[in-house]
């Protein structure tokens, strides 16, 4: 993990970090007592650069990371343009973009600071991740997509101790 964090830090991306399943899966594997890691579909690398929102720049960063570690399926995304994909108002940072992800436990990332220390980015905190709770983000309004992710990714089969938190009911409902 440190090698991957160093590789991403070496790109010098503004607010650059590794996030999502990279850490979520690692934590859930550890809390389930698994000796091996659940295979990753990809390694999500986030950054925030409103001055250059060209998708081609992301592909160039992917290529640079593949040179450093070709065994990883790198997926670099500039969060300054992700609001377009999600139909939201523009995000102002990586952390703000993560607020709009489907699950709170997935909205976790890490990066190395200038001194080489690990900095955690977790806009919802770490309790859902560490307590094996799958909760829909309050900023993500598509329950069917949230539930579909759980099914398609087979989280309850892979990590049977997970608890899916039911949707909040409105006080007026």
The secondary structure category is alpha/beta
Largest sheet descriptor: 5 strands, mixed
Mean pLDDT: 94
CATH topology: Beta Polymerase, domain 2
Count of domain modules? 1
Q: What is the count of helical runs?
A: 8
CATH class value: Alpha Beta
Going by CATH, what is the homologous superfamily? Beta Polymerase, domain 2
The global form is globular
N- to C-terminal separation? 45 Å
Q: Taking Cα atoms only, what radius of gyration do you get, to the nearest Å?
A: 16 Å
- N-to-C order of helices and strands: HEHEHEHHEEHEHHE
Describe it.
- It contains eight helices and seven strands, in the order αβαβαβααββαβααβ.
- The chain has a five-stranded mixed beta sheet with strand order 3-2-1-4-5. Strands 6-7 form a two-stranded parallel ribbon.
- With 173 residues, the protein is α/β, with parallel strands linked by helices.
- It is globular, with a radius of gyration of 16 Å.
- It has one domain (2-164): Beta Polymerase, domain 2.
- Strand 2, helix 3 (55-68) and strand 3 (74-78) form a beta-alpha-beta unit.
Question: Mind sketching the topology for me?
Answer:
Elements (H helix, E strand, L loop, with lengths): L1 H9 L6 E3 L1 H11 L11 E5 L7 H14 L5 E5 L3 H5 L7 H5 L10 E4 L5 E4 L5 H4 L2 E2 L8 H10 L2 H4 L4 E2 L9
Parallel strand pairs: 2-3, 6-7
Antiparallel strand pairs: 1-2, 1-4, 4-5
Organism: Paenibacillus haidiansis
Protein name: Nucleotidyltransferase family protein
InterPro entries: NTP_transf_6 (IPR009267)
């Amino acid at each position: 993990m440190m090698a991957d964090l160093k590789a991403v830090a070496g790109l010098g991306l503004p607010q650059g970090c590794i996030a999502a399943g990279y850490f979520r899966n690692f934590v859930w594997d550890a809390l389930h007592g698994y000796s091996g890691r659940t295979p990753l579909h990809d390694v999500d690398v986030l950054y925030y650069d409103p001055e250059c929102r060209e998708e081609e720049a992301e592909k160039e960063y992917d290529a640079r990371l593949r040179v450093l570690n070709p065994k990883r399926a790198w997926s670099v995304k500039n969060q300054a343009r992700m609001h377009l994909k999600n139909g939201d108002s523009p995000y102002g940072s990586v952390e703000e973009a993560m607020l709009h992800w489907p699950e709170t436990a997935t909205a976790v990332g890490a990066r190395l600071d200038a001194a080489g220390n690990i900095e955690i980015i977790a806009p919802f905190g770490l309790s859902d991740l560490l307590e094996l709770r799958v909760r829909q983000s309050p900023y993500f309004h598509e329950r069917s997509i949230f539930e579909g992710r759980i099914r398609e990714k087979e989280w309850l089969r892979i990590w049977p101790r997970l608890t899916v938190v039911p949707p909040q009911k409105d006080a007026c409902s």
